[in-house]
Amino acid sequence: MFWRRTTVHSAQKISISDPAEFLANTRGAVNEVLFAWSERARQEFAGRVGEAIGYSLATPGKRLRPALVIAAFDALGGSGDVVEMAAAVEVLHTYSLVHDDLPCMDDDDLRRGRPSTHCQFDVPFATEAGFRMVPLSARVLASGAQRLGISTPVLGLIGTELFRAVGASGMVGGQVLDLEAENKAVSLEELKRIHRAKTGALITACGVIGALAAGAGDAEVEAVRCYGQDIGLAFQIVDDILDTTATSRELGKTAGKDVEQNKATYPALHGMEAAKQEAETRVMSAVDHLAQCGIDSELLGGLARFVANRRS
């Protein structure tokens, strides 16, 4: 098992300004929540499906998405323990990785440095485990909202934001567009549409969820949404770059898959240097959206720069 147990339990204890330290502490706090829920899943889904859920949730990751929830919550003046609500996002993200690796999708045998779930448990068990994680994430979200004392109407807004981001108009739809674009010439606008849906929609939702949970006003929520859209696009552009420049060991997944499958990517469409510049431009734009709304968050700015400078 890869769980790192920790005594960190509340957003206040991890609201620090250094992005690297913040991410490290977030991982510990989120991992603890995921551990508790994976143990429940093992009891409720007896046999290999429960084990596959536990294995998938235990796979080590950056936990960037829940970190964005917590950072936005803190930046907009939220108080209370938002970690469990943030962990719900990671459950959904994990489901997407399990299904993304399946042979019918990107067909990758390596994820976050160890065998993909379908390689460890076989395709039917991995497929079912992924599906089971969707309602599981809703339960984690509801539990986190109760912990924060969030009202039913606000929870409805948060749930709509989250599940719309992973549905046909977001991640799932983006994955379909991504598969359809293989071996085809696409325009820049088409590529942006794919990236904003497949990767950007969930990243965008993370900031919005944190802002809504904090009780932010409409203008602040919209500013955080724009911030998320920009860093979501930057994240996928950097992913495209790293697929070409990094090793499988650095990435924790198989490098070179985009070229092998002839996927539509920024480096393929515009070249490596232009792709790097676009990622930097998106990060600057993201931070500018916050500044224009008067949201002064060194941490959100640092996380945006982390997205552009990461090596995995």
Task: Describe the fold and architecture.
The chain has 312 residues and is mainly α. The protein has 15 helices and 2 strands. The protein has helices at residues 19-44, 48-58, 64-75, 83-100, 117-121, 123-148, 152-165, 171-180, 188-213, 218-245, 248-251, 257-260, 266-270, 272-292, 298-309, and strands at 110-111, 114-115. It has a two-stranded antiparallel ribbon with strand order 1-2. Helix 3 packs across helix 9 (188-213) and helix 14 (272-292) runs antiparallel to helix 15. It is globular, with a radius of gyration of 18 Å. The two termini are 21 Å apart. Mean pLDDT is 89; it is low at 1-12.
Share in β-strands = under 5%
Write down the secondary-structure element order: HHHHEEHHHHHHHHHHH
Taking the sheet with the most strands, its summary is:
2 strands, antiparallel
Q: Kindly report the spatial arrangement of strands forming the biggest sheet.
A: 1-2
Low-confidence regions: 1-12
Q: What is the count of β-strands?
A: 2
What's the N-to-C terminus distance? 21 Å
Provide the helix percentage: over 70%
Give the topology, please.
Layout lengths: L18 H26 L3 H11 L5 H12 L7 H18 L9 E2 L2 E2 L1 H5 L1 H26 L3 H14 L5 H10 L7 H26 L4 H28 L2 H4 L5 H4 L5 H5 L1 H21 L5 H12 L3
Antiparallel strand pairs: 1-2
Task: Please supply descriptive tags for the structure shown above.
disordered N terminus; mainly alpha; 2 strands; single chain; two-stranded antiparallel sheet; 312 residues
